[in-house]
Design a protein that fits this description.
Helices cover about 60% and strands about 10% of the residues. By secondary structure, the protein is of the alpha/beta class.
Length: about 425
C-alpha cells in the first residue's frame, strides 16, 4: 500500500510539472541554480539551502531544464508525504493529500513549498514513534522553507515526552545546512542580510497584519484554503468536495477521533501565523493547513474518498493548464524579450524579476505607480501591476494582455503590458 501511495504522489506531481516559472520567488530559485548568492537574492533570505541543493542535484542528473529541476524535489517529497499522511490519518488522508487541487499544483511548481509540505508531513508522522528522526526532518525542513517554523509548535507538543531526543535531532538537522550556509555567506553578512530581509517582510512589502484588515486577510486566506487548495465551491464537483469534506471532519470530531483532533490542534499555531504575518494573496501559504484538513478528514473513510474523487475532477483541468501554459508573468517577460530585445525599459512589480531569467538584456525596474516612470530614448513599457495610477496625466497605449486561471496562477492570473509615451 505504501509503495502505491508513494508512486501515486510522485507520478501526479511529475505530471503536473509547470511549463515555466512564476513570480519573484520562482525567478530567484532559477537564478540560484546558476549562482548561489543571497546578496543578489539568488534566492532571497534565508537561502533555502536544502531545497536549492536538491534542485541542483536534479539539474545535474535527470532534469531537462531549470523548471523541472526545481519541481522534482517537490514531486519526490509528495510521494513520501503521501505515505506520511497515510500514517497520520489513513488511506483517506493520503488520497486527499494527493488529489487536493492546490497541493497537487504546488508539487509541480518551481517553488520550495511542495518539498516543504512533504517534509512537514514526515515530521509529524514520526513525532511520537521516532522523535529523533522526526527532529532531524524538522531541522532539514527549515532549510527548505523557514516560514514553516510556526507549524512546529504543535510538533513540540507531540514530542514533549521525549523532547531531548527530538530537539537533538532538530539541532542536528538545522546544523547540517546552517553551518555550510554561514561558511559560504559569512556569519556577519548572513545576519545583516537576514535583518534587512526581515524588516522588509514585516514592515514594507511582506504580509504583516498592518497590510489590510484582519477580516480581509481572513477572507483571502479562507479562499486560498477552501477554494484554491481543497477545491471547495458551488460548481457540481466543488460542491460535492465541500459537503463530503465537511461531513468527514464533522463525523471524525463527533467520534472524537484522536487523529483528527490532533491534526486540527497542531494546525492552530500556523493558522495564527498565516493570519498575522503571511501574504494573504499567496494561496501557497495555506498548504500546511490544507494538509491538516486532509488528515483530519481522512479517518472517516467513505466521505473522505468521495471528497478526494471530487477534488480530482476539479484538479485535472487545472493541472493540464499548469503543464501546458506559461504563467502570465512569465509569458509577459518572454514576450517583451522577443519583441523588444534592445533599448527597452520595463516598469512593474513582482513580475520584473522574471526578466533576469527570460530577458536579462531588458532594463526592468520595480515601481509602484506611473509617476515613477522616467521616459527614455528607447521603448518604455509598464505592466498593470503599477498602483495608484493617475491616468489623466500620462499617455500610454495597451500592447498585450496575458491571462491564466486564478485557480492555477493566482495572484498573477492577468497582466496587461502597456507602452508609455510620456506626460500629457
Amino acid at each position: 500500500m505504501w509503495a502505491l501511495l508513494c508512486a501515486a504522489g510522485v507520478a501526479t506531481r511529475v505530471w503536473a510539472t509547470a511549463a515555466g516559472l512564476e513570480g519573484w520567488d520562482g525567478a530567484d530559485f532559477a537564478l540560484a541554480l546558476r549562482e548561489y548568492d543571497l546578496a543578489k537574492q539568488q534566492p532571497h533570505f534565508p537561502g533555502y539551502p536544502v531545497y536549492v541543493a536538491l534542485a541542483r542535484a536534479a539539474r545535474a542528473t535527470v532534469a531537462r531544464d531549470d523548471v523541472a529541476a526545481l519541481a522534482l524535489p517537490g514531486a519526490l517529497a509528495a510521494g513520501v508525504g503521501a505515505v506520511a499522511a497515510h500514517a497520520l490519518g489513513g488511506i483517506g488522508a493520503a488520497l486527499l493529500v494527493i488529489l487536493a487541487p492546490g497541493l497537487w499544483l504546488l508539487g509541480g511548481k518551481a517553488l520550495s513549498d511542495g518539498t516543504a509540505l512533504g517534509l512537514l508531513l514526515v515530521v509529524f508522522a514520526l513525532a511520537r514513534a521516532r522523535p529523533g528522526a522526526s527532529g532531524l526532518a524538522a531541522g532539514l525542513l527549515l532549510g527548505v522553507r523557514l516560514a514553516y517554523l510556526p507549524a512546529l509548535a504543535g510538533w513540540l507538543w507531540l514530542v514533549r515526552a521525549r523532547w531531548r531526543r527530538a530537539l537533538g535531532g532538530l539541532a542536528l538537522g538545522a546544523a547540517l545546512w546552517l553551518a555550510p550556509l554561514a561558511t559560504i555567506v559569512g556569519p556577519v553578512e548572513l545576519a545583516r542580510i537576514g535583518l534587512h530581509f526581515t524588516s522588509g517582510h514585516f514592515e514594507r512589502w511582506g504580509g504583516a497584519v498592518g497590510y489590510g484588515s484582519l477580516g480581509a486577510r481572513a477572507a483571502a486566506h479562507g479562499w486560498s484554503l477552501g477554494t484554491w487548495h481543497l477545491g471547495m465551491g458551488l460548481s457540481p464537483a466543488r460542491l460535492v468536495a465541500s459537503v463530503a469534506l465537511i461531513v468527514a471532519i464533522g463525523l471524525a470530531l463527533r467520534r472524537r477521533d484522536p487523529r483528527s483532533r490532533a491534526a486540527l490542534a497542531c494546525a492552530a499555531p500556523y493558522a495564527l501565523w498565516a493570519l498575522l504575518a503571511q501574504n494573504p494573496d499567496r494561496p501557497r501559504h495555506m498548504a500546511p493547513l490544507a494538509a491538516a484538513v486532509a488528515v483530519a478528514a481522512g479517518p472517516t473513510i467513505v466521505p473522505a474518498l468521495v471528497a478526494a474523487s471530487a477534488m480530482a475532477v476539479v484538479a485535472l483541468p487545472l493541472v493540464r493548464e499548469q503543464r501546458k501554459a506559461k504563467s502570465p508573468d512569465a509569458a509577459l517577460a518572454r514576450f517583451v524579450a522577443a519583441r523588444y530585445p534592445l533599448r527597452t525599459r520595463v516598469y512593474g512589480w513582482e513580475e520584473v524579476r522574471l526578466f533576469a531569467v527570460y530577458g536579462p538584456r531588458i532594463e526592468a525596474r520595480r515601481a509602484y505607480s506611473l509617476d515613477e516612470i522616467t521616459p527614455g530614448d528607447g521603448v518604455v513599457l509598464f505592466t498593470s501591476s503599477l498602483r495608484d495610477k493617475r491616468r489623466d496625466r500620462h499617455c500610454f497605449e495597451p500592447v498585450a494582455t496575458f491571462r491564466g486561471s486564478a485557480a492555477v496562477f493566482h495572484p498573477h492570473e492577468s497582466l496587461t503590458l502597456f507602452r508609455y509615451c510620456g506626460l500629457r
